[in-house]
Write a structure and sequence with these properties.
Layout (H helix, E strand, L loop, with lengths): L2 H8 L6 H13 L6 E4 L6 H11 L7 E5 L8 H6 L16 H4 L4 E5 L6 H13 L1 E3 L6 E3 L3 E6 L3 H6 L5 H7 L2 E4 L10 H15 L9 H9 L5 H15 L7 H5 L35 H32 L2 H5 L3 H7 L3 E2 L2 E2 L26 H8 L5 H15 L4 H8 L3 H11 L3
Parallel strand pairs: 1-6, 1-7, 2-3, 3-6
Antiparallel strand pairs: 4-5, 8-9
Helix pairs in contact: 6-8, 9-11, 13-17, 17-18, 18-19
Length: about 425
């Protein structure tokens, strides 16, 4: 069976180099009995891969038993895996086979293996090494012949160093490790996979999908997809059902994307360049690894942009709402934050005798106080408001002033309508 037929048959989609390497490795090990550990983020397709390995193996005519170790309470996981005898504990009214017995002759898929309690890890090691185990409440040795496929979204070696996972079990599971790449690392696969999902759901729901704009296509590719294939499938289904017969533009698509984008985001976040070359995995344990550094960097950039947004909102809103005399009455910390902030392309300064859209006038000119003093009161009561408090308040005031007109509100705040829509959703504002 060639790679394309294999992928089509088992739903392992993608033609990127990263995916081709994964498929080749799966096809190499599938027909053997070697233990395989699948490592990858949530939603990358570990369960689909495990099914493909079993279906390609010599054990395909026997059971594939799927066990989510993270979903089984610690108190009963041993009984679930290895079975129990009648009377072994309260409620054990009959003897019961465990998953390893049910999988005899076939394959057992241990998902989220890293969540297995330490006392159970000892018993897993024994069954992996020689196929022997004990039912709970029995001293009789049981045997089973199973092929083990494990999966985790955690760093097992890091868990070993922290004492949360047995080192001997780690080496037993690490015979063959297959790392499934996240969707953001194979962006060329996103559009073809999305189209396949759309075709599938269009047929299922008897719907018509009229396509999407170039900007929407770019957004699909640049979005980080924290939920990976699972999230992409979910978005495709929502678009087919909820945007039936609609042409999808960037704004429509953005409503269904929950996380941050990887490159060219709505917040104009830059993509962090991958530093694969020259990265030494044996660096000091005190240093963050590459992925950790990227995560921290992205968070800092997002924070910087959020602060810039709030400062811009302050400047635009204050200068469109208050006279110079009123502004000088505000707390010094507030004046400093908006001093020399660029408003609508013009640098303004609180020291100037001017307001946005007004002629210069002396300080002693009689000026009518603004009717709406809520913002002034807010700033005086809160010497240094949080970013979220200030941003939410300014948005509310802008919408109130323009009777809910979002276009005018966004212009006054100095942000795009798209950003305003996102902020409304973020703060749960109508």
């Amino acid at each position: 069976m060639d790679r394309e037929v294999f992928q089509e048959q088992f739903g392992l989609l993608g033609t990127s180099e990263a995916m081709r390497q994964v498929i080749d490795k799966i096809m190499q090990v599938a027909k053997t009995d070697i233990t395989v550990t699948l490592q990858g983020e949530s939603g990358v397709g570990k369960d689909v891969t495990a099914r493909a390995i079993h279906a390609m193996s010599e054990r395909s005519n026997n059971n594939l038993v799927i066990v989510n170790c993270g979903a089984i309470p610690e108190g009963i996981i041993e009984s679930e895996l290895f079975g129990h005898e009648k009377g072994a504990f309260t409620g054990a009214e009959t003897s019961r086979e465990g998953y390893f017995e049910k999988a005899n002759g076939g394959t057992i898929f241990l998902d989220e293996i890293g969540d297995t309690p330490k006392n159970v890890q000892v018993k897993l090691l024994r069954v992996l090494e020689n196929g022997e185990f004990f039912r709970v409440g029995s001293s009789k040795v049981q045997t089973t012949d199973v092929r083990v496929v494990a999966a985790t979204n955690q760093d097992l070696w890091k868990m070993v160093k922290e004492g949360a996972f047995r080192e001997d079990l780690y080496y037993r599971l690490d015979t063959v490790q297959i790392k499934l790449p996240p969707l953001r690392d194979r962006s060329e696969d996103i559009i073809p996979i999305f189209r396949k999902f759309v075709e599938e759901y269009s047929a299922r729901y008897d719907s018509v999908f009229k396509g999407f704009s170039d900007e929407a296509r770019e957004l699909l590719i640049s979005y980080r997809w924290p939920g990976n294939i699972r999230e992409l499938r979910n978005v495709a289904e929502q678009l087919v059902v909820l945007e039936k017969s609609q042409f999808i533009d960037k704004e429509k698509l953005q409503k269904y994307l929950k996380g941050r984008q990887h490159e060219g985001s709505a917040d104009n976040l830059p993509m962090v360049a991958s530093k694969k070359q020259g990265y030494n995995s044996s660096d000091s344990d005190d240093e963050f690894d590459r992925k950790d550094r990227e995560l921290v960097y992205r968070a800092l950039v997002e924070l910087r942009n959020d602060i810039a947004d709030v400062k811009k909102m302050f400047a635009n809103f204050l200068y469109s709402s208050f006279t110079t005399k009123n502004l000088k009455a505000l707390p010094a910390s507030v004046r400093d934050e908006v001093d020399k902030t660029e408003v609508s392309g013009v640098n303004v300064n609180l020291g100037d005798h001017a307001t946005l859209g007004m002629q210069s006038m002396p300080d002693d000119t009689d000026i009518e106080e603004p009717e709406d003093t809520e913002l002034s009161d807010f700033l005086k009561d809160n010497e240094i408001p949080s970013i979220e408090e200030a941003e939410k308040f300014l948005i509310q005031q802008a919408l109130k002033r323009f009777d809910g007109n979002r276009r005018k509100a966004s212009e006054t705040l100095g942000v795009s309508e798209r950003t305003l829509y996102r902020k409304l959703d973020q703060y749960g504002l109508d």
